[in-house]
Amino acid sequence: MQSTRAVTLAKVPSGVPQPADFAVQSLPLPEVTAGKVLCRAQFLSLDPYLRSVLSGRHLGHSLDVGAVIPGSAVSVVERSAHDDFAVGDLVSGALGWQTLALVDGASLRKLPSAIFPSLAPASTALGVLGMPGLTAWAGITQLAKVTAGDTVLISAALGPVGSSAGQIAKALGARVIGIAGGAQKCAQVVSHFGFDACVDYKSADFLSALKAACPLGVNVYFDNVGGRVLEAALAHLALHARVVLCGLIDQYNADVRPAGPNLGPVIGARATMMGLVVYDFYPMQAAFLAYMQTLLQQHALRWLEDVSHGLESTPAAFCKLMSGGNFGKSLVQL
Ligand SMILES: NC(=O)c1ccc[n+]([C@@H]2O[C@H](COP(=O)([O-])OP(=O)(O)OC[C@H]3O[C@@H](n4cnc5c(N)ncnc54)[C@H](OP(=O)(O)O)[C@@H]3O)[C@@H](O)[C@H]2O)c1
User: 154 C-alpha to center of ligand 1: Å?
Assistant: First the structure.
């Protein structure tokens, strides 16, 4: 019988996750029956929402102790009993943090050969050209409807969502300001991703630096963080600003949900706040990829990946992500 090596939940984390919250173990795999596809992982995706899954707080999803962590992966088809997939195809899907996964073919997506790997490596199907990129595109183009001349402020700006949102907003002619943790991250947001400025929320002069970076206020705030960063950003909303509430990473590690920020400035600016759930935009995947393909062809799209190596490195890499230590899209290469 075949087996897989998998990262499983050893215990539900309390606070910032620790490597001991996870186990790496061999698990048996059933036979490949009709409709199933056996996939060998090349890259595992580490995403902040998984922290909420571990606490049972992600859109009703939770996880039993001992279960395989249900992350996404880019894999190569090793055996197929599904007509749409052949051995050697590059696919992505919710394959879990494991070396081999046996799944229904219907749950897999083939990576389009027009893009992968001629325009971008397969790993980017988990970042700028995958779910995080789609989230960014949806927030900037479908919800906030950014246009030329807008000032757009984006938190967690060096991550795959923030950096993609910023690049798309730049391509649309906006002035783009990032918020990130630490001088080194802020420098990369500007130098690698072409933001007009980036403000360090960990610095003592954060509030005054933010004010200086957006003297006329912000037309769009794309929030990935919540908490005091959201509160600081709301103080700079221009009249009729649009706020996209995308993520709350500031509270994913909290055992008790903190009190919300003061929303008075939203009223004062007559602003609109919109909740973003990327799943709503999965039917628009083709439009998103066509748009990104154009940016790739214009050499107007970059990415940054924080890659660790080997399945055993996955728990520590996830803990690094959840304590802000990652520089760019967090991945594990197998
Ligand atoms: N709404 C949706 O459908 C949807 C879809 C995808 C992602 N999201 C959300 O989008 C946000 C960004 O996701 P991503 O994939 O691009 O990840 P990411 O930016 O790589 O996420 C990790 C980063 O979050 C930042 N961060 C801010 N406050 C933090 C805190 N208190 N603790 C730890 N890290 C903190 C850290 O960067 P700094 O050092 O710069 O703070 C850290 O490097 C997340 O909140 C995610 O849940 C939402």
Answer: 11
Tokens 């214009």 correspond to 298
More confidently predicted of 61 and 287: 287
* pLDDT for 227 beyond 80: yes
Residue labelled with tokens 């900037």? 140
The gap between the terminal CA atoms of the chain, to the nearest Å, is: 22
Model confidence at 322: pLDDT above 90: yes
Q: How far is the CA of 250 from the centre of ligand 1 (A)?
A: 8
pLDDT above 80: residue 38: yes
| Arithmetic mean of pLDDT over the chain | 96
Cα atoms found within 13 Å of the Cα of residue 49, Cβ hemisphere only: 18
Whole-structure pTM value:
0.94
What are the tens digits of pLDDT across the range 254-285? 888 888 787 778 878 888 999 899 999 999 99
For ligand 1, atom 45, which residue shows the shortest CA distance? 247
DSSP state of 20: G
Q: What average pLDDT does range 56-77 have in this prediction?
A: 91
Q: Which of 40, 9, 43, 7 is nearest to 309 (CA)?
A: 43
Residue among 195, 249, 285, 308 to mutate when testing ligand 1 (max atoms within 8 A of CB): 249
CA distance 37 to 79: 6
Is the pLDDT assigned to residue 60 strictly greater than 80? no
* DSSP secondary structure letters along 94-134: ---SBSEEEEEGGG-EEPPTTTTTTTS-GGGGGTTTSHHHH
Task: Determine the distance separating the centroid of ligand 1 and the alpha carbon of 322, expressed in angstroms.
Answer: 8
Q: Whose Cα sits closest to atom 41 in ligand 1?
A: 181
- Name residues contacting ligand 1 (CB within 6 A): 47-49, 131-132, 135, 156, 158-162, 180-181, 185, 224-225, 246-247, 249-250, 276-278, 321-324, 326, 330
The whole-angstrom separation of Cα 124 and Cα 131 is 10
